[in-house]
Amino acid sequence: MSLLTRRTFLAGAAALSLRAEAPALVPDKLTKFVDPLPIPAVAKSAGLRTMAGGDTPRVPYYRIGMSEIETKIHRDLPATRMWGYAGSSPGPTFETRSGEGLQVEWVNNLPTRHMFEVDHNLHGAEADKPDARAIVHVHGAKAPPDSDGYPEDWYVPGKSATYYYPNQQEAATLWYHDHAMGITRLNIYAGLFGMFIVRDNVEDALHLPKGRYEIPLIICDRSLRQDGQLDYMVSGIPGAPWVPEAPGEAILVNGKLFPYLDVEPRKYRFRVLNGSNSRFFHLSLSNDQPFMQIGTDQGLLPEPVSVKNMMIAPGERVDLVLDFASYAGSQIVMNSDSFVLMQFRVGSERVTDTSSLPRKLRPVPKTLESAAVKTRRLRIIEDKMPNGDSMMMMLDGKHWDMPVTENPVIDTTEIWEFVNTTEDSHPIHLHLVRFQILDRRAFDELTYYRTGQLRYTSNPEPPEPFEAGWKDTVRAHSLMVTRIIVRFEGYVGRYVWHCHLLEHEDNEMMRPYDVLPRQVTTK
Ligand code: C2O
Ligand code: CU
């Protein structure tokens, strides 16, 4: 369905709506660069504790509440009602070190009524389910299954869950967000997300910019009304408000619209996260300066890669170094296609920069295809909903509640091939693991439909240099086979894999998977 059709639907729906809604806001009419870029606070631990019932060591304990908040998105807008962690959206940033575990008690203090319309046709969001449910997942964490935030393990206001994050993984930019079955798109859109940074000695030794020269940029799009309130697009079909994607015209960076950041003429490190429901960003700078990309979802690249047009899909992270040294006194705007995101104001006073951007970062040993014990061919498809009205996206033609089919054995390596038969690029994310992209290859659609055979129409293309590191989310392009190689390490148990376009994820484009224990062979 085209955007135009959906908008017409939306107009029709407005008549049915009981809420008196303010008209849509045109963000471009607001004055740009009047608010400084907020930097999320660092999460504070409430002391050391042992895990209840476990024999885990005493580790820092955090108690983080989810609640409704009022926040200023822009100087000239009234405060916006949102949902946040520890009183803010984005929530506070977790600062952690590799091998140093921590526990978080995630407390649901949300209102019992959702701020957006729940679609009860979606699996797990049926009318008998409470409206405001929540559960937290740390995206990219190698966490035990009972601390991973399984979508069905949601809990209601007044309840909490205490999760253990061992952080037995290399330095990386992770993020946490809601994952409640059937309403993840609405909970994240309301503001339930934040950053979770893992550091280690290897990274420290590189002397990258740090402290106030290392800044998270959490970017997401929203639709706003003129009264400053969030608007989540609806289909216009009574009782079935789900839409296949929910793009907004207001792009928020760390929760602000068109913020500015005062910088010194020196190097900065920016950890960029695309926290949008469905919008892909193509970042570029007004002075045509390239970004030096130093890391991907799961850590450092082998060497910095210069990128002028940075593409980031929902769920993906890029770790960047920008050197403002030769731009003293100038103003640089960061854009995404026709959207203005934020402004950097470079000071004119000379400074000494003791940080470095080494030519070599961290080796990323290639996982060899010969290490794989199994190859799974998994289709990405779109289908009609049973009501015939709207689309449903599926992974390998299977619904969420069908028996588990992906069941790798712990400490084995597999190749997963995503055969994308749809018109969209889908960012596919696997919980628990990190992986490498092998290649992408175009195939003939018609032959595939007629015979189920893959007739390739291009040579395999290796990953772009800027995605040739450790990943946990991969863009599976339209009419291509995207292959990844994964070693299933860490824990045995049930996890999920899904599309990170949140509207898709909530509508069947998510599957459970099991990491099985090593086979015990008897003689
Ligand atoms: Cu970022 Cu399953 O999620
Ligand atoms: Cu998708």
What gap, in angstroms, lies between the N and C termini?
58 Å
Roughly what is the average pLDDT, rounded to an integer?
Answer: 93
Number of E-type strands: 32
The computed structural class is mainly beta
Radius of gyration: 23 Å
The CATH topology name of one domain reads Immunoglobulin-like
CATH class of one domain: Mainly Beta
Q: How would the global form be characterised?
A: globular
Q: Which CATH-level-2 architecture of one domain?
A: Sandwich
CATH superfamily of one domain: Cupredoxins -  blue copper proteins
Q: Which small molecules are bound?
A: CU-O-CU linkage, copper (II) ion
Could you walk me through the main structural features you see in this protein, from its secondary elements to its overall organization?
By secondary structure, the chain is mainly beta. Among the domains are: 37-202, Immunoglobulin-like; 369-515, Immunoglobulin-like (Sandwich). Helices cover 7% and strands 38% of the residues. It has helices at 3-16, 184-190, 201-204, 445-451, 502-505, and strands at 35-36, 48-49, 59-71, 80-85, 94-97, 102-108, 136-139, 160-165, 172-178, 193-199, 214-224, 230-231, 250-253, 256-257, 259-263, 267-274, 281-285, 291-296, 299-307, 310-312, 317-323, 331-336, 339-346, 372-384, 391-395, 413-420, 426-430, 435-442, 473-476, 480-487, 493-499, 510-515. Strands 11, 12, 13, 14, 16, 18, 19 and 21 form an eight-stranded mixed beta sheet that branches. The longest helix is centred in the N-terminal third of the chain and has 14 residues, at 3-16. The model is unreliable at 1-19 (pLDDT under 50). The chain binds CU-O-CU linkage and copper (II) ion. The site of copper (II) ion (CU) has 6 residues, from loops.
